[in-house]
User: Which sequence fits this backbone?
């Protein structure tokens, strides 16, 4: 089984079904439960009709709904029919939600009691519910006769409370809930922030529809982070693990941004063309271009990554922008200053060693130093602000990728540098 | 309470203690439990000695251990004395582990039974244990008289099984465990992969020491992703949220890599100096430099991000390197080809519009196209391999940041480009 787990990502759909069929019954069940919805769908589609029913019925309603979303349209009805009638109803309700909303993530199988039960009655009632494979018995939700959520009590509290106390005396009525259409990222945040094991999902009228448990959230947290990282790396996020993504879809997700960045970089080319005469007169200027503009890109990449991640974790909100501008202006000044010192050392050292720049040395050093401070400040501020701008216009802030910021900063870098050169070097090199 | 939660990141330690003291008892408890260890430490240190005891005793042993690790050395013994003797013993055991190992993450408060108990006895026994604030009653672990882990049974199963069955007949003995010194990242992987709510931690002899629950893991997954993202963005990972990190430590974490990258970029400058004569003869060549080298950097950043994330999720292992080289060689060829077409269009179009390049046009187009394919292939392959190399030498693969890869690729980019120019343009521009 270990072996199959290791090889799994490398196998084709047919090989997967084949090696899966060689597992013992017990191992197969464990393995099946641990697969992604996509993997489960491949197994279900690949096996015999008799087996198919068996596997579909092993799935909890929320997992079954996910599998149905993975299979081709034409197989959906057939697989749905394999489920028992009660589960079919639950699955149909779940399919009405978008996959990445609280409603699409939740399980309708939670433990519920009425507020006027005694502790003893409640324990007995929950034990009876536990026989239908509840998602968790850790939390017991208190609903009134209209399914409105009144409060929550932990099963542990029920077990240790006096038998004749009423549930409503025991329950916590001030509880965290999430609406059905909340984005899964925010559901994950709510669970992580309040350190709870499950959060109830309620509709507009306060009726409880299901629970999202923390184990569903681990997957969400992980895949949201992956998505953001891919975007920060300068491409569209892949839908499946790298080695399992087919070649053409992957090229498509990478080529798009790469072409956009390439076109963007043409502005840098255009900007440089404007200073062609500078370059013709002082070739040495061209040589420092990569050094200067890449420093702006690097500092911008740091700033945008920091802000994107802080936004994703809810640590930075849109209204914080002015605090961050101030912070990054200062950071840019400090970081640019450090690089400027290194840059001056480089110019002076080269001149001492190779007598390269002659009497222009101090002016060249000044050009490099001043442009570095300017470019790095521009990099940190625009890198930090780009995620805000994207978010304010409804785009994903993670699209402010390192390469994107670098490209934006390059144009400005060229202009800052050649203008500084124009000021400091006219009369000597220019 | 909502308000304090929102403002929290912006408050100083004193302001935090003050606003915390204004909360009602109930709210304060909720709020305290939801804080990070650092926040809890600030509150505990800030409040009166009587209150201090109260808050320390509210903490579960694993949380108390984390708080003790956050406070200055000299306060540790005093705070430890506030705990009851049993908890002190547990906390001391936990402090012996590194914070980021399974042992440092686990709670010693799990539900345990002997294998020869009947179901009825087991339920009664677990209910009694539940009164001491167990971490979870969801899983009940079956230990023999030497504390060796024999199996696990879910509390739900106990509740629904016949009262006179023995625990050992019911338990699952083939279960996932993690060793005490396992890195927290791998613990998180184990829990996520097997979709379990808690994993038992065992020592070298198979004795059970504690459990790590899935809610601890959400924090781990999130902070590991943050760390990787900061590194991918080209800096050292910050220890605390962006807005809470003080200015100087932040500058230090960013300036280090920025300076390294700056020094790295000097190789590009040196490489360009070698081609100074090319530039002097054909200034137009200099103008395309940013376009060409940034394409290499961008494609490299995509490849390294993909590989770093796939490694962190355990989807790619060291031994997969040759499959990935092959894949990225092909990707680089395809992506470089696409950019080459755009590049040719740019050169030809400019010549048609502005008669810029004259008879050198086809040769310049060939130079740009061939260098783009070469640079992008070099970018994808070296971007994909750098994380492998770092990991093979024991470094964190996430240090293969977008800016780092871009800097490495820049040197090669300059060389590829000017050599291509030497071949295609000698006789016309050169």
Assistant:
């Amino acid at each position: 089984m270990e072996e199959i787990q290791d090889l799994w990502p490398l196998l084709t759909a047919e090989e997967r079904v084949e090696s899966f069929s060689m597992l013992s019954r017990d191992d197969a069940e464990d393995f099946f439960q641990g697969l992604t919805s996509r993997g489960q769908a491949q197994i279900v589609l690949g096996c015999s009709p008799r087996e198919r029913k068996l596997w579909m019925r092993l799935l909890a309603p929320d997992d079954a709904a996910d599998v149905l979303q993975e299979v081709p349209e034409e197989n959906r009805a057939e697989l749905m029919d394999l489920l028992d009638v009660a589960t079919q109803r639950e699955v149909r309700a779940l399919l009405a939600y978008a996959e990445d909303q609280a409603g699409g993530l939740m399980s309708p199988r939670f433990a519920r009691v009425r507020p006027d039960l005694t502790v003893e009655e409640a324990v007995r009632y929950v034990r009876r519910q536990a026989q239908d494979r509840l998602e968790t018995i850790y939390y017991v939700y208190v609903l009134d006769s209209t399914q409105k959520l009144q409060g929550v009590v932990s099963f542990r509290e029920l077990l240790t409370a006096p038998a004749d106390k009423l549930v409503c005396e025991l329950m916590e009525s001030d509880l965290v809930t999430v609406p059905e259409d909340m984005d899964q990222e925010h559901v994950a945040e709510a669970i992580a922030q309040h350190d709870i094991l499950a959060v109830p999902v309620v509709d507009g009228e306060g009726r409880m529809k299901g629970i999202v448990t923390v184990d569903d959230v681990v997957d969400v947290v992980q895949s949201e982070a992956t998505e953001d990282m891919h975007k920060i790396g300068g491409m569209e996020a892949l839908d499946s693990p790298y080695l399992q993504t087919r070649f053409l879809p992957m090229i498509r997700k990478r080529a798009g941004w790469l072409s956009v960045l390439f076109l963007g970089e043409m502005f840098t080319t255009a900007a440089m063309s404007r200073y062609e005469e500078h370059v013709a007169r002082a070739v040495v200027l061209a040589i420092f271009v990569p050094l200067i503009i890449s420093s702006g890109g690097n500092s911008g990449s740091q700033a945008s990554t920091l802000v994107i991640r802080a936004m994703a974790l809810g640590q930075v909100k849109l209204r914080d922008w002015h605090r961050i501008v101030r912070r990054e202006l200062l950071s840019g000044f400090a970081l640019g200053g450090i690089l400027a010192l290194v840059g001056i050392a480089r110019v002076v050292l080269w001149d001492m060693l190779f007598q390269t720049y002659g009497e222009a040395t101090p002016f060249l050093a000044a050009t490099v130093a001043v442009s570095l401070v300017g470019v790095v400040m521009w990099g940190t501020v625009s890198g930090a602000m780009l995620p805000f701008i994207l978010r304010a216009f409804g785009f994903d802030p993670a699209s402010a990728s390192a390469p994107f910021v670098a490209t934006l900063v390059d144009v400005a870098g060229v202009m800052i540098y050649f203008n500084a050169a124009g000021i400091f070097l006219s009369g000597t090199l220019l």
User: Anything to note?
Assistant: DSSP finds 20 helices and six strands in chain B.
